[in-house]
Amino acid sequence: MVVEGSIPTQAEGAFCTVGEKEEKPLAVLDWVTKLGNHSKAIINVGTCSAFGGIPSGTPNPTGAKAVKDILPKATMINIPGCPPHPDWIIGTIAHVLLYGIPELDEQLRPLLFFKGLIHENCERRHYFEEGIYAKDYGDEGCLFELGCKGPMAHCDVSIRGWNNGVNWCVRSGSPCYACTEPTFPDHDGGGLYGVLDKKSILGIPWRKAERKKPPKPVKLI
Ligand code: SF4
Ligand code: SF4
Q1: Which pLDDT tens digit goes with each residue over 156-166?
Q2: Ligand that lies nearest to the alpha carbon of residue 181, given by its number in the listed order
Q3: Cβ within 8 Å of residue 13, ≥6 positions away
């Protein structure tokens, strides 16, 4: 079973329904519970089904939960991301079909895609090492002081890129918001824009990975 979206649990799941049964709305909560109990494995696509995501952020009026909270004993793979990268989805499904369940980390994310931290391979890392920090959006420099969570984000888009490698979050000038982590979006009270404790991130290796060159721009007319 593949699930997208967190599961509202307040009001008996009335905040998200799919169709009707015996002329009553059928809650996704009930569907996921029923189908999940008959599934060999569950793939959660996106941070909402994997960890609760934005709907589960404070104050969470719908009682939104991750699928793991609904079916704690089920065999599960999490493909977080807000949004999740298409390569992660296709790659994981292909791996399940061809070879079985891939190796997972402690958050049930495939190590194929979620092994390293953004900060390890970030193209602005030299600014971090030199102490050059952007003070505002659009500035040159490392985005740490604008709340970049690259030092805690397990994700490979600093190498993989989005849209066939055209761009990615930090290159486009946006701090990483660690959208692949279970703490997203509250991040233990710091929220999306809170600055991490710098002392806690010193010592993260710098791998200077080879990057795919972006494809040549397509002439549209
Ligand atoms: S803090 Fe963010 S912008 Fe700075 S090097 Fe790390 S990942 Fe890149
Ligand atoms: S770089 Fe950060 S914000 Fe961008 S996809 Fe990865 S974890 Fe999410």
Answers
A1: 999 999 999 99
A2: 2
A3: 7, 27, 28, 29, 30
